[in-house]
Amino acid sequence: MAETNKKVHFIIERQDGPTSQPYTEEFEVDYRPALNVVAALMEIQKNPVTKDGKKTTAVVWECNCLEKVCGACMMVINGKAQQACAALIDHLEQPIRLAPARTFPVIRDLMIDRSVMFESLKKVQAWVKVDGSWQIHNDAPRQNPKTADTAYEISRCMTCGCCMHACPNVNSGSDFIGPAPMVQAHLFNLHPTGEYNKEDRINALMQKGGIGSCGNSQNCVQACPKDIKLTEYIAKLNRDVNKQALLNMLNK
Hints:
Oligomer: single chain
Number of helices: 9
Structural class: alpha+beta
CATH class of the largest domain: Mainly Alpha
Number of domains: 2
CATH topology of the largest domain: Fumarate Reductase Iron-sulfur Protein, Chain B, domain 2
Helix content: 25-40%
Low-confidence stretches: none
Number of strands: 7
Shape: elongated
């Protein structure tokens, strides 16, 4: 049975719009076993009244799958970027402080704009060009079993942005594309069809804001909720970049 007298105390950093000043509001919700942050935010949404009884607007946040797959509900919880759907109240110290991941532009309250990350995925061509490939290459290529495990691991990336938020080189004053897009380039270089465009991806990583802007702080690998070995794959990309740089010099 739920503990009817037990409350969960939230301090939420809010912002009314992209150019508005942030402020905080405090809320309380009834505790129940297995309660997570998203479920608590839903309770606040039903009755948006602050801890001191003031009626306010509902807190805005983003969520979708509710099972740590889509990455949409990423926010800063007690100082750490993580998925709100997987953040259990029982495992969090109170008061629970919620804030948007300000590495990204804030749309409203806890909702952020990840467009910069998706634009970076375009820069490194993080996709497979299927159209016309079979006319160029007679036999359908097969996944190398030696790289299949690595490809599967990287493909678990949710593009949540936790690694981007943790990286000190990703900020409004930097053009660094960040760890997630770089490692996605490695994923598609491992793909049996995507490998045909490996040179284009590597050359993109050699441009301004590419792999040369990585400071090797290794914060990203610690922040990844899927335990992807980001720094290991960035190191492999760095080796590919050095090889391609030599080839580019020889082919001039």
